[in-house]
Design a protein that fits this description.
The chain is built from no helices and 28 strands. It starts with a strand and ends in an 8-residue tail after the last strand.
Length: about 200
């Protein structure tokens, strides 16, 4: 297993694309063969996957931040093609793309497993087309995530699931995503909140 992380308890690492290049690319990575922990992926720019592009790759990202990344087509922060990454307590904010402001997913991974977001926060991501935060055309699962204040010019401000996609969502919070929180089929695993009353106080 390859582990990528800052040195020391108080160390920090930012992979910065400078607005002109993709930050990270991975191809043919077995599940959990690569663990990326505690880094910031910022200012990446590409056609697909401005911050990260995954092709048949299923790495584990732990407590990482993806911010201000841009893709002219899909996946401002992350583009997943036939990949099933696991994002554990990661934050995605201020990323933009045509589809999937934060994450775009297409194609089933060789393992047949779902891409997974656990305890993640997705805020202020924008898509000109569909999926302000998430654009899913394959297999995606969310557990314990907050999807707040994302926007799209098309459908699914928080989550867009295409006809070829399956989105499983549990214990997650969707609020103030525009024009709506989710579009397409969502398999409700329970414990979810989707609405405009973010404080659940009737205001």
């Amino acid at each position: 297993r390859l582990s990528i992380a800052p040195l020391g308890a108080n160390g920090s690492v930012t992979v910065d694309g400078g607005g002109i290049a993709r930050c990270i690319a991975m191809t043919d990575v077995e599940p959990n063969a690569v663990v990326v922990r505690g880094i910031v992926v910022a200012n990446g720019s590409a056609v697909d996957g401005g911050g990260v592009r995954l092709l048949r790759a299923s790495p584990l990202f732990v407590e990482c931040v993806f911010t201000d990344n841009t893709a002219s087509q899909s996946g401002g922060a992350v583009r997943c093609q036939s990949s099933a990454p696991y994002f554990d307590r990661c934050a995605f904010t201020g990323n933009t793309a045509n589809n999937g402001g934060a994450i775009s997913l297409v194609g089933v991974a060789p393992t047949g497993t779902f891409a997974m977001l656990a305890g993640c926060e997705l805020t202020s991501n924008v898509a000109n087309g569909d999926g302000g935060a998430l654009h899913n055309l394959t297999q995606l699962q969310l557990d314990g995530c907050r999807v707040l204040g994302n926007g799209s010019g098309g459908f699914g401000g928080g989550l867009f699931t295409g006809t070829s996609g399956i989105s499983r969502v549990g214990n997650s919070y969707f609020c103030l995503n525009a024009p709506n929180n989710a579009t397409g089929f969502v398999e409700d695993f329970g414990g979810n909140f989707m609405g405009a009353d973010c404080n659940n106080n009737g205001i």
